[in-house]
Hints:
- The complex is a heterodimer.
- Chain A is mainly alpha-helical.
- In chain A, 83% of the residues lie in helices and 0% in strands.
- Chain A is built from 9 helices and no strands.
- In chain B, helix 2 (87-97) runs parallel beside helix 4 (127-140) and helix 3 (105-111) packs across helix 4.
Amino acid sequence: MSAALAAILKRDLKLALRAGGGAGIGMIFFLAVVVIVPFAVGPDLPLLKRIGAAVLWIGALLASLLGLERIFAADHEDGSLDLLFLAPLPLALTAAAKAFAHWIATGLPLVVMAPILGLMLGIDARSLAAVTATLLVGTPAVTFIGLLAGALAVTLPRSGLLVAVLVLPLAIPLLIFGVAATDAAVTGEIPLGAPFRLLCAISLFFFVLGPIAAAAALRYARE
Amino acid sequence: MRLLAEGLGSMRGGRTLFQGLSFALHAGESLVVAGPNGSGKTTLLRLIAGLLPPTAGRITLADSEDPVGESVHFVGHLDALKGALTLGENLAFYRSLFGGGGDTVDAALGRMGMGTLAMLPAEVLSAGQRRRAALARLLVSHRPIWLLDEPANALDADGQILVARLMQEHRGRGGIVIAATHTRLDLPGAREISLAGAA
């Protein structure tokens, strides 16, 4: 069973990282969002410092949505989704393996980029560490929520917008507690632990719910 | 091992494709599903694989510990190859996914007459080569029931002889072959179901 899971993980990573896999698009989008904000806000460093964590979170959240609508649709189009159904694996685990591979290829680079982009917004070292930690916990949850949207999008053409509409409301708690935990680290008014632990709890909830819901949606799409 | 279908019926898009379909296949037997385009051949194969729920009836596998879905190889009209991966990588993936237990990737490709193509990206293969690659999946891991949808499509004369030989060997080892076709297939001693098409 673990060999089959490892095979799915390895294949999806290879596909994402080869030419045309689209792993780099999220990084470019993230960079574009963060670079464009200071132009809109103006060269007001204290203001940028204050909203920096929120800008990074919004950029990473939106960048995480890219490509999610293809996560099952590509397999559906070439017939390999049928074969994933016939694998000796629970469908939810198959879905989880695909989501994890997607996150490693698209989400993890965003987390690595965040502190570098944060420097451009004038965020100090302490907050940089906090925002990176919250993104490390929060972006996989965004991918796992998107897994459900990706499963629903299997039989729909041009479903990119559908993914955004379905994921964003569910991702709002992640955004709130992610930014709250970062603010807590900066201002020190409330302890960092409280919002950060809530963020972890929400993430864990979606790690479980996402694959199960996606598997149910995929089964339903068969009928 | 026995594959039993009892009173199978299927409706697609509000249209009855077939109903009351029953058959029993023992180890080593084969079944040819014939019928014109749109008569439900592919649907029947997908029902057997468990990829579609039947509207009526059921499929069971007697004298076997595995569920039907984990006992079948399904070669549909799509080749399930990833163009960005090499032929060898594609097959190695399916070998691990289905738990191996068959030929190595190189041996299976050699058997299908593509021993020298393992390093090529799948996207440059011709239709016939892609078909051969899909059929090589049958060899890299062992599963007792083969469900083949138009297995000879796009294959040249040699390829068709090769497919017939593979099916024969599989039956010789006690496997079951169910093939859907609108042309003639070289399957001696096979039983036949003819789907007439919806009225």
